[in-house]
Specification:
The protein is an alpha/beta fold. It is 62% helix and 11% strand. The chain is built from 19 helices and 15 strands. The strands form 5 sheets. The chain has a 7-stranded mixed beta sheet, with helices on both faces. A two-stranded antiparallel sheet has the order 2-3. It has a two-stranded antiparallel sheet with strand order 7-13.
Length: 627
């Protein structure tokens, strides 16, 4: 339970004339929700010990009226000062205790605070590093220079190679000396960067990487307009749960959260329990249609039920109406709908024998067991975030029903739903066993080994050799497989009533293994080449190295998707049939769209302000020319 210091002593001259009417942090993001409301709402979730806000004396009455005793106000005693002076005033009230430092004009998502507070470090300061700011943010923000996992310098005039500070800083007990020394050295106009640089010289500043998380510093009217858009994006992003399954995270939530936020913004007062019942009815309807062999419509309703199933909980969180009763009813109706859909898939089969009945019983049992073990692991205090990455959660199961129905292959859907949960349950047993023995394994630290070495010419040469040799090996391996195909093609290995395996299937699998193995090694070499290119271009483009790498890697993936589109579906059609070719084409197409969307979003995020500036200049020229 840390104390929180919020500095709100700026004059907000860049927000005039609006800042003449109200303090910057009291400007609204939506009706009755100010920037300060937003910040305090996030702070309350971490149970702060105290909240101190440094303000100018002229704003005391309005802050008293708005805060209603939720925070302690500290008034500044001079007219002109830097932001570090505000920090020093608050620090005197804290008796050298550690504290969390926030800016009153920054909005941010909750996970930034959670990640920062989860760090264990002895550094005087831990800052939040954004490696992928937009070009405009990189220009205006406090740039950080890094070496071996530590901050070595902070300045607005640095190259944006490594990234910028997000304005949320964890200050520990030993930060007091650096703050006091900076004020002594630089006077009342000392800045937070001055204290950071003094500490960085002693190796006492580290960082947490918050790249990809939403935040914004509101300095201008344009920033406020952008903040009002990002506010809704943050609300929508925070509706996503860390334990969401793969399909839920990448398909369902992007749809359901948009529906939920739209309903909330428009003021639709629909009870979450009503949405729960709608999802249940959709699931039952899907099961009936599947039993009647109306596959496409039944599959679509199953996937729609999966999407709508997320809306009820999202609305409950937006309206602050989360109740144990709602969670219980949602879970119960989900299980009933799941079993009904298993019955629908089973009844759609042309032949129902003893094996099929046993398969259906196993699938029905698995749908209940997956929910059961997840709930019990949570009650033991075990995080289920990693467990839910095993593709057997409800969102994945309903998506499999959708795909199997789309291709009129219900038996394939039943096989998947019977087998995948077994891996899920096995992993859950492993997690429970580790809890029993008290041997929860620590996560592997994901960073480059220290010291970080620069790529020399010899290493570049090795990368190029690896790229060429693996490309040749891939071509030779595919040539060998294609040459042996006519010799062994068409031989049946297993022929059961509902399962047939031939050498054609093995050839297709062999092709995939060859492509995946050598393709992976080629991709590693290409990524290393991209790292070299990014280091060379970062100063020219004016964006961070991480952002430039992301753009280049996305372009690489687009080329990869195009190559797979040309080669893979025809191969699968030859060896495994049209259904495999269509499924591969669908997967590649979805992959291509996702990468293209990610690239477009990254370009807009990075260069959007530059684009708007060009449009404004053109509009201005045209306006001047018409007069």
């Amino acid at each position: 339970m840390l104390p929180i210091v919020i500095i709100a002593g700026g004059v907000a001259s860049r927000l005039e004339p609006y800042s003449g009417e109200t303090h910057k942090c009291l400007m609204e993001l939506e009706p009755n929700v100010t920037i300060l409301n937003f910040i305090l709402n996030r702070i309350e979730k971490i149970n702060p010990h105290r909240i101190l806000i440094v303000i100018r004396p002229q704003f005391k009455n309005v802050f008293d009226e708005r805060l209603e005793g939720k925070a302690e106000l500290i008034e500044t005693d001079i007219e002109e000062f830097g932001n570090l002076y505000s920090v020093s005033l608050a620090m005197k009230r804290l008796d050298a205790s550690p504290f969390l430092l926030l800016m009153s004009d920054h909005i941010f998502e909750q996970s930034i605070l959670d990640k920062l507070l989860s760090t264990s470090s002895q550094a005087a300061f831990t800052v939040c590093l954004d490696r992928k700011p937009s070009q405009a943010e990189a220009k205006e923000g406090l740039k950080l220079a890094l070496r071996e996992g530590a901050v070595v310098y902070a300045d607005k005039n640095l190259s944006p190679r490594y990234g910028i500070d997000a304005g949320i800083i964890l200050c520990r007990e030993n930060s007091e000396a650096y703050i006091e020394r900076a004020v002594e050295n630089f006077g009342f106009k000392a800045t937070i960067a001055d204290a950071l640089n003094l500490a960085a010289a002693d190796g006492k500043v580290d960082y947490v990487d918050v790249t990809g998380k939403l935040w914004i510093d509101v300095d201008t009217p344009e920033d406020l307009l952008k903040a009002r858009k990002i506010y809704w994006q943050i609300l929508r992003k925070e509706l996503t749960k860390p334990e969401d399954g793969l399909v839920s995270r990448y398909l369902n939530r992007p749809i359901s959260t948009r529906i939920s936020v739209m309903m909330y913004r428009k003021g639709f007062k629909i009870e979450p329990i009503t949405v729960t019942l709608v999802s249940f009815i959709l699931g039952l309807s899907a099961s009936i249609l599947l039993a009647m062999r109306v596959f496409i419509l039944g599959g679509l309703l199953a996937q729609l039920a999966s999407v709508v199933d997320g809306v009820d909980g999202e609305l409950a969180r937006l309206y602050h109406k989360v109740t144990p009763w709602g969670g219980y009813l949602d879970s119960l109706l989900d299980r009933i709908a799941d079993i009904a859909m298993v019955a629908g898939l089973t009844l759609s089969l042309p032949i129902i024998d003893g094996f099929t009945i046993l398969l259906a019983i196993l699938v029905a049992a698995n749908t209940i067991l997956v929910s059961y073990v997840t709930h019990n692991l949570s009650s033991l205090g075990v995080s289920t975030e990693k467990l839910r990455k095993v593709p057997a959660t409800r969102d994945v199961r309903l998506f499999v029903v959708f795909i199997a129905s789309l291709f009129s292959l219900p038996i394939i859907g039943l096989y998947y739903l019977a087998v995948a949960p077994i891996f899920y349950l096995s992993y859950s047993l492993a997690l429970a066993y580790k809890i029993r023995r008290g041997e929860i394994k620590l996560e592997r630290v994901r960073r480059e080994p220290k010291p970080e070495l620069l790529i020399e010419r010899k290493e570049i040469s090795n990368i190029i050799k690896s790229l060429i040799s693996n490309s040749i090996k891939l071509g030779l391996a595919l040539l060998i497989v294609s040459m042996i195909a006519p010799v062994i093609s068409g031989i049946t290995l297993i022929n059961l009533s509902s399962l047939a395996l031939s050498t054609d299937h093995l050839l297709s699998i062999l092709n995939l293994i060859v492509i995946i193995y050598f393709g992976y090694r080629i991709m590693l070499a290409l990524k290393a080449v991209i790292d070299i290119i990014a280091k060379r271009l970062v100063g020219v483009v004016g964006i961070t190295e991480t952002t430039l790498k992301h753009i280049l890697v996305d372009c690489l993936y687009i080329v990869l998707a195009a190559l797979l589109w040309v080669y893979l579906p025809p191969q699968l059609n030859t060896y495994m049939g049209e259904w495999a070719s269509r499924l591969a084409s669908l997967i590649i197409f979805v992959f291509f769209l996702l990468i293209l969307y990610d690239l477009a979003k990254l370009f807009y995020r990075t260069f959007g302000d530059f684009y708007k500036e060009i449009v404004e200049r053109i509009a201005k020229k045209l306006h001047e020319g018409s007069q």
